[in-house]
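U., I forgot to send this yesterday:
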Amino acid sequence: MVNSQWPAGGRLNLTGLLYDIGWRLSGPLLTGAGLFSPKLARAVAGRRESVDRFRKWASGRRTGLELPPLLVLHGASAGELAGSIPILTELRRLIPDLELVVTYSSPSGEEVAADIRPDMHWFVPFDRPDHTGAVLDALRPDAVVFAKLDVWPTFTREAARRKIPIGMINATVRPRSGRLRFPGRQLLRTAYAQLDAVGAVSEGERERLIRLGVSPAAIQITGDGSFDRAIDRVQAAQGGPARLPERAPGMVRLLAGSTWPTDESFLLKTLSQLPEFELVLVPHEPTLETVARLERDVKRYFGTPARVFSRFSAGGTESSDSSPLIVDAVGLLAELYTEADIAYVGGGLDGTGLHSVIEPAAAGLPVLFGAHHDRWEARELVASGGAVELDESNAAVEIASLRDASRRATMATAGRAYVAGMTGAGLAGADLVASLLRRS
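Result:
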């Protein structure tokens, strides 16, 4: 018999029943979709191995009656997990013998594991009762915590049935989130209602979390650990070896991070008319195809060959002039921001999804990005005077104004002050998670 979701009232939740059936029928579809996406194929394969991997780990660690406290933390991908690091750092100070298991949905989660240093990490199991139940029975966790917003309905249901406390940290709901509309709201409402404690990033999230199904009594305002994380990363990067070539005399370096094709075309077109600026492009996905396309576009707009980071850093013959530089590497943004004068953050021009504006602001840079986004921290950074939203009508004028070092300094000071004023979520989030662990 297929297990289904049962709300507190005891009546059968038809949406939950259809969800369970859908997962049982999804195997062949996911396998087929993986043929067209290496990332999806990796995620599907990882989830298939999840039960066996967690059982094997637990068989050597989670036996007997006297066990150290264990937390299961789930984050959809790298960004959600990275924002949890300040909370985990403080939590380990509060509970030195804590064991930590991390799960994720995207392969990018694996990349953050080295920074988190969990006792075990792997892909979250398929959201079926037999899979999630088997993992929970093997691990016997004292609490399950979700990062940001990502919840799995069956995972929460099975944890609640085992009376495992369930929480959420760094919780935020974008105003246009599909979770607030049909069918997402109906599908996930029971899962959000199971949360025992939720640490929201700001007061503005409260009403949207309640609409999702979270109990008002469960919500606390603890802040966003991403601010603490940004400060830590920038401080660690400062004073390190230079990654970029020296800029030509008198040039202002604009570093564009996590860009997509729309951002890149927009910047190349705009900066080709502003010769005082050196453009450094850091694509979100620096594949060989992306680099080849950008080299063609640089030649088209600037009439000169592009410089490519890997060739320069390998000691090749790349010129040291001010032609656009393409960074064909990942994981370097924090370091590169410390070598720039201005930051542009990609994803906000066409609604692709604006990336984090916190880290460049923490690095003391004026921050630029497109206006099509729904990120609350980006709006607040603009209001603080640390950032400017761009579109075709104002881009050339706004960027040109940043030739003025005093204007750059004013924006940088405002942005740094905004980020510094938002720190402290590490300790507040750790207290919330510790209270869940104590319940168990």
